[in-house]
Amino acid sequence: MDGTFKEKNEDIRSTEYNYDEESSSPKMDDPSNRFEKTEKEEPKVGDLNCFCHPHRVFNLGDILQRTRQWALLNFCEITGGIGVALTLIPDAIWYASIAGLKPTASLRSIWIMTILTSIIHGRPMISGTTGAVAIVISTLVEDIGPGYIFYTVILAGVFQTIFGLLRLGFIFKFISLPVYLGFLSSVGILEALSQLRYFKVELNFASISLTHFHGILSPILSPCFDGAPWVDYITCIIMVFECIGSLLICFLFPLITKNISNVLIAILVITSFEWGCIRPLGYFSPLISDLHSVENTLDTEQPPFNFESFRKIFKYSFILFATSLIQSTMTASYVEKQTSVQTKRNLIAIGQGISEIVSGSLRGMGGSAMTVRTVLNVKSGSVSRLSSFVAGIFFFCFAVAWPIFYVVPLASIVGVTFYAAFHMIQETFPLLLAAILPERVRKRLNITYKIERCETFIIAVIIIVSIFYDFAIGIVAGVLLQLAEYAHGSSKKLVIKREYETGVKNAIYYITGPIFFGTSEKFSIAFSYDNIKSDPPGIIISLEGAEIFDYSGLIAIHNVYERITKLGKTLVFSGVSPASKRIMGKMSDIWKDTNFLELEEVQEHIDKDSVRFENNEVGYRFDI
User: Fold this and answer.
1) Is residue 110 included in any domain, yes or no?
2) Would you say 204 and 293 are in contact if contact means Cβ atoms under 8 Å apart?
3) What is the CATH number of the domain that holds 571?
4) Are residues 45 and 32 located together in one domain of the fold?
5) 582: buried, middle or exposed (CB in 10 Å: 19+, 13-18, 0-12)?
6) Which of 28, 174, 471, 508 has CA 20 to 30 A from 168's CA?
7) Average pLDDT of the residues in 97-114
């Protein structure tokens, strides 16, 4: 990606012009000219063309030259957006059919949301109706009717906008890399397997209903295995050949040049092959136009919006909000990783929320970031908002204003989808393989990377739950497992070391590690009555290497203090960190009779061979 960006900027350089005030014509290298440009500024990929900066244009030639330079610089962004737009049409028709709506509802959502999100958050992300969103809407249709769809979409958008305005995006910092890899892999596998639906004889999805969705597979995959007949073997061979062809073009064309989208080239080449070679021979493969026979009989007349309507849609709006937010944020994480540009999660939520509100207001289905199409956009060389903006504009042209591109073979889109799916799973499966192979085999195969088996288990759980149930549930399960694994691992880091010599009146306990709910039991057991009753009369607990994190750890320390003092011994805490002091200070009343020492005072009392305090001679106390 960096190489592509550098190559573009090396090819196109801004030209230095000096202008004669009298003639207003370009004049080179005139040091006396006040319009002299002293520093060369290179244009950036994705910037909009400006005819006033760094200097204004003076004639038609300037306009044409600057427009040409801008077009050459952003040629990959423009062609990438066009190529991705072509792949969106089958998805739009398919997801609208799942929800039981006309394709126009999904088509409208895609171009509205893609254009608006590219303007608001400025990332090369494609947005629109996804499989997860379609499933939520289909459930809504079955439960309360189709008239509430657009209210639900608008309310979900309001939730997302509020989420971003309240700057709650920090919540997603708890999503670890294994969870991210599990999400990416599950979406890639689901999308790759779902392409099998295009190998069915019947491409009219009008008969799809929720009865298909109660099997053992994800609802997105159920229609692929519903028992409907497959295409004949000749058509299947043609489709497989075209699919492999588009896949190979996507991989090999960047070796020739990166200044034009490999996705667009693959679709154009396979379309030309279909109409130039296959059809003249009397054979054919399904086209996008074969999907356009979807009919809808649902009554989407909207009921009046009142409290009763709000009560009905609230649950579905919240589910739609959570689904959209999770998928959009995870997709943004992928874009951030690939482009090395920091993603503002709150701005992502605001952009998705506003676009959903507009989409629902215009009777669209709403949606979220389309992960697979975003991966396709990035892997075709796009790095800026220009590509997604172009994708939205051209998708409107292809699907609404100028549907001539329905002549594209579905097999070409299947091939580029496999290309995106490959890039989504290529990082995960070597890790899973390395985790299950024994060390001897890994050495023989020269596999030098391996992650913990518990993290491998988390990735596997997310993939399995996503394929057999729902990806949002899979992500939530992965996050909970990751937090549980972290808490369990942290509980093993508490180390308690006791130093005591015969004849000495002091015993010192050195505590290192976290003190929280996961280690509070271990901490209490270490200071049980049986363990401390034989200790000398003075006990020092050094917390220099420890940290108190929560209420459970705080109470565990206080219980140890009460236990020791009931035995008539003197207890002193030392080395309490500033963070732990803040937590303890919030409950200062329970520490009013407790002795605390600074680190430099501990050795002094050890030298005195006693920690008995007289006249409340302590290092410090908490204010009550």
Assistant:
1) yes
2) yes
3) 3.30.750.24
4) yes
5) exposed
6) 471
7) 86
Asked whether residue 42 falls in the same domain as residue 118, the answer is no
CB 141 within 8 A of CB 325: no
Per-residue pLDDT of 397-440, as tens digits, reads 877 666 667 788 999 999 999 999 999 998 888 888 888 888 88
Gap between the Cα atoms of 568 and 101, Å rounded: 77
- CB burial readout 481-496, b (16+ within 10 A) else e: bbeebeeeeebeebeb
Domain stops at, among 436, 462, 490? 490
- Lookup result for tokens 């009392």: 605
Beta strands across the sheet bearing 595-597: 495-499, 506-515, 538-548, 570-574, 595-597
Contacts of 173 (CB under 8 A, 6+ apart): none
* pLDDT confidence of residue 128: 92
The whole-angstrom separation of Cα 219 and Cα 142 is 14
Looking at the fold, whether 339 and 483 belong to one and the same domain comes out as no
Q: What is the dihedral of CA 268, 366, 216, 94, to 10 degrees?
A: -30
Fill in the amino acid letter for 594: T
Would 180 be classed as within a structural domain? yes
In contact, 546 and 513? CB cutoff 8 Å = yes
Rounded to whole angstroms, the Cα distance separating 381 from 1 reads 7
- Number of structural domains in the chain: 4
DSSP SS3 for 130: coil
Are 499 and 486 members of one domain?
A: no
Residue 261 lies in a domain: no
Residue 46: the pLDDT is 66
Which residues are CB-contacts of 246 (< 8 A; sequence separation ≥ 6)? 266, 267, 269, 270, 411, 412, 413, 414, 415, 416, 419
Let me know whether 467 and 443 are in one domain: yes
Residue 53: pLDDT band by 50, 70, 90 thresholds?
low
Spell out the residues 6+ positions from residue 387 whose beta carbon is closer than 8 angstroms to its own: 46, 77, 78, 80, 81, 84, 124, 377
| pLDDT tens digits for range 59-84 | 787 778 878 888 888 888 999 999 99
What are the respective helix, strand and coil percentages of the chain, to the nearest 5?
60, 10, 30
- What residue numbers bound the domain in which 44 lies? 2-73
Is residue 425 within 8 A of residue 462, CB to CB? The reply is: no
Give the number of other Cβ atoms within 10 Å of residue 274's Cβ: 21
pLDDT for 616 equals: 40
Apex 528 CA angle, 525 and 532, nearest 5: 130
Helix pair angle (60-73, 2-11), 10° resolution: 160
CA atoms within 13 A on the CB side of 185: 24
Q: Are residues 453 and 351 both part of a single domain?
A: no
Same domain? 30 vs 162: no
Q: Is the pLDDT of residue 600 over 80?
A: no
Dist. CA 458–CA 14, nearest whole Å: 50
| Residue 257 covered by a domain | no
368-403 tens-digit pLDDT: 999 999 999 999 888 888 999 999 999 988 776 666
Nearest to 306 by CA among 151, 496, 467, 471: 151
Q: Identify the pLDDT of residue 15.
A: 39
- H or E element at residue 26: strand 26-27
Pick the last residue of a domain from 490, 513, 543. 490
DSSP, collapsed to helix, strand or coil, labels residue 498 as: strand
Same domain, 525 and 574: yes
